[in-house]
Design a protein that fits this description.
single chain; alpha/beta; Rossmann fold; 6-stranded mixed sheet; binds 1,4-dihydronicotinamide adenine dinucleotide
Length: 347
């Protein structure tokens, strides 16, 4: 029986994991606390750790994991930008869930577009107050407009299909463009300048890396069409939020739909309705009538939660049985003997 320390637990995590767990194989201790240098000592006596998007996995935490002989951390998410893989390399194996439901995230991005455009969130409140007036609810036809998709991996590709389904022309950007796929799906790869200049809606589906940090900065915003709609369901750090606020204030940015925010760690996933928001940028964003913020819920569907639990438990099983770790992420190494590198699977 292997003992797992599970951090940042919510009721829905517990439910989805308990539905899949074999109690003879794993015993999970569900901690509400996030993993951080302050809480990392909780891992004492466990065989593995399960962490999520806003847990801290920096050098300080990884040193504690090493000290406590934790050989494996299973991230119950796809992104791993919060992990110091260099510090973990050779000591702690990091596993992830590469795909649990790309549909969940792409469909949420589409929901943000439709809500912002047709203002259904406002209509809902109005009609409940017996206000049946239409003034201020005018939208635009998506049909015939141009969408720009940045990142054409699993989620970006589903998003492209949805947008094509609306009758939109789609432009895409990716450092690894699959031209055959683009031809098959009826969209075009272009450089970022062309994407910014021609898109009415821009949706981000690339990972957060050193290269993509603040990809959408003041210069990028300046290059976009006036009134553009920006949708971010990827990672908050892709957007320089101060520049976004300036763009919204000047009217250059027509709409922003954000499921992620660069400083979301302190706020998202928690009920803080009785608290004061000390983050002035988040507070300012929440005042714009043309901004819709959801708190990192893109992944949050029944199907995705079930897949996350199944893959995470499978990742732990493979590690403890000494089997191949297909879902491992590791620091990009230069070791010729690295099996992953030989197989072209080095991240
Ligand atoms: P993926 O790995 O399948 O695709 C990412 C794509 O981005 C790849 O095609 C890659 O070539 C491309 N890319 C890399 N650097 C780029 C750059 N500089 N410019 C443009 N494209 C670039 O990843 P997947 O599954 O599609 O997920 C995308 C992102 O969505 C994840 O990195 C994660 O941050 C986010 N995500 C958000 C969730 C939510 O709940 N809101 C849930 C799951 C993922």
């Amino acid at each position: 029986m292997k003992r797992i320390a599970f951090f940042d637990t919510k009721s829905y995590d517990r439910r989805s994991f308990e539905a899949k767990i074999d109690s003879k194989e794993f015993e999970i201790s569900f901690f509400e606390a996030r993993l951080s240098p302050k809480t990392a000592d909780l891992v004492k006596g466990f065989d593995g750790v399960c962490a999520f998007v806003n847990d801290t996995l920096d050098t300080r935490v990884i040193d504690i994991l090493k000290r406590e002989n934790i050989g494996v951390v299973a991230m119950r998410c796809a992104g791993y930008n919060n992990v110091d893989l260099k510090a973990a390399f050779n000591n702690v194996h990091f596993l992830r869930v590469p795909a649990y439901s790309p549909y969940a995230v792409a469909e949420h991005a589409a929901a943000l577009i439709l809500t912002l455009n047709r203002r259904t969130h406002k209509s809902y409140l109005r009609t409940r107050e017996s206000n049946f007036a239409l003034a201020g609810l005018e939208g635009f036809d998506l049909h015939g407009k141009t969408a720009g998709v940045i990142g054409t991996g699993k989620i970006g590709r589903i998003m492209i299909r949805i947008l094509r389904g609306f009758g939109m022309d789609v432009l895409a950007h990716d450092p690894y463009p699959d031209q055959e796929y683009a031809q098959h799906e009826g969209f075009h790869f272009v450089d970022l300048d062309a994407l910014y200049a021609r898109s009415d809606i821009i949706s981000l589906h690339c990972p957060l890396t050193k290269e993509t940090h603040h990809l959408i900065d003041a210069d990028a915003l300046a290059a976009m069409k006036p009134g553009v709609m920006i949708i971010n369901t990827s990672r908050g750090g892709l957007i320089d939020t101060k520049a976004l606020v300036a763009g919204l204030k000047s009217g250059k940015i027509g709409y922003a739909g954000l499921d992620v925010y660069e400083e979301e760690g302190e706020y998202f996933f928690e009920d803080l309705s009785g608290e004061i928001i000390s983050d002035d940028i988040l507070a300012r964003l929440l005042t714009f009538p043309n901004v819709l913020i959801t708190s990192h819920q893109g992944f949050f569907t029944k199907e995705a939660l079930a897949n996350i639990a199944e893959t995470t438990l499978g990742n732990f099983r493979a590690f403890f049985r000494g089997e191949a770790l297909d879902n491992e992420v590791c620091y990009r190494c230069d070791r010729p003997e690295c099996r992953k590198k030989r197989e072209g699977r080095c991240f």
